[in-house]
Design a protein that fits this description.
The protein is of the alpha/beta class. The protein binds nicotinamide-adenine-dinucleotide. Nicotinamide-adenine-dinucleotide binds next to helix 1, helix 4 and helix 6.
Length: 258
């Protein structure tokens, strides 16, 4: 059970990318538990359908759509389908992302740079471009874009990933400024080390790998996807009504001393 029932999204419609795994799945479930109708979007169908089953088991309305967030047409089609099915758009969590293999700036291949900027950063521009007009039609809304601790501090051998996430942080702030007076709030969320399949790939999934990465967390543990989900719901709820243009770290103090 997540902390989601503390929030009430009854009658609201949420859109979540990267919903087939990790943080995106936990957040889609949290929105559904809080009463929202949810569109879940992902490029990987097995995970997407697993999330769909978990939401359907709650008895909540769900629309599962294959969507490559690097493709403007895919995003527009998913949002159009959301309006066709649910009639409005209130909250968006633009979260799909990929990791970057560790490499110095010299060794980072052009192909990997293009890929990480496209999936992690360009996608957020494309999502907001298509979401904001729909939220304006719905009378306002809230957007949370997944940045990272790597969107706040520089990390050696992660220049492409850091550039993508610093970009997400600043794009969120600019969008917040542009739409603050039209009832749309936009925030960046910067998770620390969260126990998801992405981190399992990063650590090799071994106990030694996990222990090494946990050392970076002053709280002595990884975060849980459900803790990030609860933060997203807070930012999208009326409780977060005066928060916009903010980059919120939820990271067990990982970046506090830097
Ligand atoms: P994850 O790998 O478990 O999930 C990411 C999801 O994004 C997957 O389902 C994947 O299929 C999807 N995806 C990838 N490329 C896509 C594309 N082109 N179109 C649509 N979907 C695509 O990872 P996660 O840990 O849940 O990460 C979610 C977000 O959080 C990412 O943006 C990541 O950079 C960020 N983040 C994660 C951590 C962490 O420690 N896990 C920390 C900070 C930030």
């Amino acid at each position: 059970m997540t902390q989601a029932p503390r929030f009430d999204f009854s009658g609201k419609v949420a859109f979540v990318t990267g919903a087939g795994s990790g943080i995106g799945r936990a957040t889609a479930l949290a929105f559904a538990e809080a009463g929202a109708a949810v569109t879940i979007a992902d490029i990987a169908l097995p995970g997407l359908h697993e999330t769909e089953s978990q939401i359907a088991a709650l008895g909540a309305p769900v629309l599962a759509l294959r969507c490559d967030v690097t493709q403007s047409a895919d995003i527009k089609a998913a949002l159009d389908a959301t309006i066709a099915r649910f009639g409005r758009l209130d909250a968006a969590f633009n979260n799909a992302g990929i990791e970057q293999p560790g490499a110095s700036i010299v060794d980072l291949t052009e192909e990997m740079l293009d890929r990480v900027l496209s999936v992690n950063l360009k996608s957020v521009f494309l999502c907001m471009k298509h979401q904001i007009p729909l939220m304006l039609q719905s009378g306002g809304g809230a957007i949370v874009n997944t940045s990272s601790g790597a969107g706040v501090i520089a990390i050696r051998n992660q220049s492409g990933y850091c550039a993508s996430k610093f970009g997400v942080t600043v794009a969120s702030k600019v969008a917040a400024l542009e739409y603050a007076d039209q009832g749309i709030r936009v925030n960046a969320l910067c998770p620390g080390i969260i126990d998801t399949p992405m981190i399992a790939r990063y650590t090799g999934g071994t106990e030694a790998g996990r222990a090494a990465i946990i050392k970076q967390e002053p709280v002595g543990r990884m975060g849980r996807p459900e803790e990030i989900a609860a933060t997203v719901l807070f930012l999208c709820s009326d409780m977060g009504g005066f928060i916009t243009g903010h980059a919120l770290v939820a990271d067990g103090a990982q970046t506090a001393g830097i």
